[in-house]
Amino acid sequence: MSSQYDEWAKVYDMIYGNYKDDLAFYLEEAKKTNGKILEVACGTGRIYIELLKQGMSAVGIDISEEMITTLKKKARENNLNPEVYVADMRNFRLNEKFSIIIVPFRSFLYNLTTDDQLKTLLNFKTHLLPGGRLILNFFYPDIERMMSFGKESEDLIVMDNGRYVLREKSFFVDEVNQTIETVAALFKDKELFWRGAYRLALIYKREFELLLRLTGFGKWLVYGGFDKRPLTSYKQEMVWIVENP
Ligand SMILES: C[S@@+](CC[C@H](N)C(=O)[O-])C[C@H]1O[C@@H](n2cnc3c(N)ncnc32)[C@H](O)[C@@H]1O
Predict the structure, then answer these.
(1) Within this chain, do residues 226 and 161 fall inside the same structural domain, yes or no?
(2) Are residues 109 and 10 in the same domain?
(3) Based on the domain organization, do 100 and 112 belong to the same domain?
(4) Which residues contact 76 (CB under 8 A, 6 or more apart)?
(5) Nearest protein CA to atom 10 of ligand 1, as residue
(6) Mutation probe of ligand 1 site: the residue of 107, 117, 120, 139 with most atoms within 8 A of C-beta
(7) What would the pLDDT profile of 215-224 be if each residue is shown by its tens digit?
(8) pLDDT tens digits for 55-66?
């Protein structure tokens, strides 16, 4: 199965491999269970591989075969035995239920339509044990972030083999249904090295709460960051801990 995210596998670890703000949070939540963990949209294993390193039992799924191939290679290098599958969060079927499903790094937002969001949440519910927890995070649709749409940002990435410049720009694809696209390009020595794009849905707190209600989740907590402080500002990351009845 080829996916639009395959392109990202080539540069994902270069760009995001060192991002660790969420790691301690997900590891701590995962450690609270003796049961099996499912990471949805596990990518190249930024979090998944750490779960295995800590001796936890975890399954991973991702829609991109290239991401999964990279994850498996990294796991081999670390003498780890991953259980990962190429699958779509909207319709995957695994013959087991999990104590925790985690969806780190805003990956729920890849569900662009309400139908997809509902399908995915119902599918999570099918794969959760009674009393199991769904844990995920995504950004609050921040008015200041939207004001910067159309403007290019530039970041320097220093690797062993040289210095790269990452240029990114986001814009609305659909202003009414609130979907956005980010286009990214990596330059090495001013030459284009790689180009990619991805689309996300913007989801407000109350919108996600309605989705949870519609899919039969009754209880949840939403924090304003990985240190579990109260959510009081649109500048904060929404960190959700949702209980399966
Ligand atoms: C931002 S990356 C997150 C990867 C990893 N969880 C991490 O924290 O580094 C988003 C991932 O979502 C995957 N993805 C996008 N849509 C998906 C879908 N419908 N089902 C499963 N995975 C999906 C992409 O292939 C990509 O690997």
Answers:
(1) no
(2) yes
(3) yes
(4) none
(5) 107
(6) 107
(7) 999 899 999 9
(8) 999 999 999 999
